[in-house]
Amino acid sequence: MTDCEECGFSYDLSLAPRVATLTRGHARAYADLLGAEPSQLRRRASPQVWSPLEYACHVRDVLLVQRERVLAARRLDTPVASPMGRDERVEHDGYARQQPADVARQLQDAALMFTDVLDRLSPADWERTLVYSYPEPEERSLRWVAVHTLHELRHHLLDMGRHPERPQ
Question: Of all helices (H) and strands (E), which one includes residue 142?
Answer without folding.
Answer: helix 142-162
